[in-house]
Specification:
Largest sheet: 7 strands, mixed
Strand content: 25-35%
Bound molecules: (3R)-3-hydroxy-3-methyl-5-(phosphonooxy)pentanoic acid
Order of helices and strands: EEEEHEHHHEEHHHHEEHEE
Radius of gyration: 20 Å
Structural class: alpha+beta
Helix content: 25-40%
Distance between the termini: 5 Å
Number of helices: 9
Length: 316
């Protein structure tokens, strides 16, 4: 028996970083996926295969998940948790295949946590989406304790959401979202710590920025209701100013954003920043101008919104 689950990548359209401090955020699941398949074995071990390598841990030492390299830790945590409550398991093999670029703000780690939770649990007992979400956030916290949970939430439910709500927003205009990868890997934990320091140094300004972000998100929701792509784009650029102020941008990202602004309605960092990806709302007629605007080493692609979220099935 094989339990196969897949979960989508995500982009944060508005509100990254501030969401860690309690403001809402607008996120969307996109059409890149990670697929995880799990099957029972008789080996007395849990074997995890991913593009980052292979790890094999004996069932009796799964509880030491904190000692495992961070890229494998959430999976060992999840197997430990699920095998613990299913005593007669003799072994598991988990294989992760992903078309989500790693460490560039597209939610690869969250999608892996969500898909792995759904895949392993499928071998034992089908969980509800709420249960999958809860467990995948716990798994993600083994590498990033401060996570807002927003990434796992949108990977679980799919669509576009105004976090913390999981209700899908109907976007009335066709969002032509371009994602450009700076090819600079980032570390979410370090960027979030940097923002925490900014907050400690200037509580008053940080609180003002949180209020501004909340107001901006209200305006974005209204713009979507009014089919107003121009305002949506302007709000992206306004959000970028707040991200610049909390210092999660750099010269490379700023150059990419300023080039993209020539042909888009707005653009900004998506995710933790300090590298990773930027997104731009580009008019159809300008799409073919994009490659000439960007340095050759940057990757770019259009994103479609994924509406399914996590899906799973059993193959006998
Ligand atoms: O860059 P990513 O995909 O790790 O996104 C991080 C988003 C933050 O708001 C910075 C952190 C969080 O937990 O929401």
């Amino acid at each position: 028996m094989k339990s196969i689950a897949s979960a989508p990548a995500k982009i944060i359209l508005f509100g990254e970083h501030f969401v860690v401090h309690g403001t809402p955020a607008i996120l969307a699941a996109i059409d890149k996926r990670v697929t995880v398949s799990s099957t029972f074995t008789e080996n007395g071990t849990v074997k995890i295969n991913s593009e980052l390598g292979t790890l094999e841990v004996s069932i009796s030492s799964l509880y030491k998940y904190k000692e495992v390299k961070s890229e494998f830790r959430p999976f060992v945590y999840l197997t430990n948790k699920m095998i613990d409550s299913n005593q007669n398991v003799k072994g598991l093999e988990i294989t992760i295949n992903s078309d989500i670029p790693i460490g560039v703000g597209l939610g690869s780690s969250s999608a892996c946590c969500v898909a792995t939770t759904a895949s392993i649990s499928g071998l034992f007992k089908e969980l509800s989406s709420e249960e999958i979400l809860k467990m995948s956030i716990e798994a993600e916290k083994t590498i990033f304790p401060d996570t807002s949970g927003a990434d796992c939430t949108v990977c679980t439910y799919g669509g576009m959401i105004e976090y913390p709500s999981v209700e899908k927003i109907d976007n009335t205009f066709d969002l032509n979202l371009l994602i450009v990868n700076s090819m600079i890997p980032h570390n979410t934990k370090n960027s979030v710590e940097k923002v925490n320091k900014f907050k400690e140094n200037d509580e008053e300004r940080f609180s003002q920025l949180c209020d501004l972000e909340t107001k901006l998100i209200d305006e974005v929701i209204t713009a979507m209701k009014n089919n107003d792509a121009t305002t949506f784009g302007l709000k992206m650029s306004e959000n970028q100013k707040y991200l610049e102020e909390i210092q999660v941008s750099n010269d490379t990202l700023r150059d990419m954003i300023s080039s993209l602004n020539e042909i888009s309605l707005g653009s900004k960092i998506t995710g933790a920043g300090d590298g990773g990806c930027v997104i731009a709302l580009v008019k159809d007629e300008n799409m073919d101008k994009v490659p000439a605007l960007l340095p050759k080493d940057k990757e770019c692609f259009s994103a479609k919104i994924d509406t399914k979220g996590v899906v799973w099935k059993i193959e006998k």
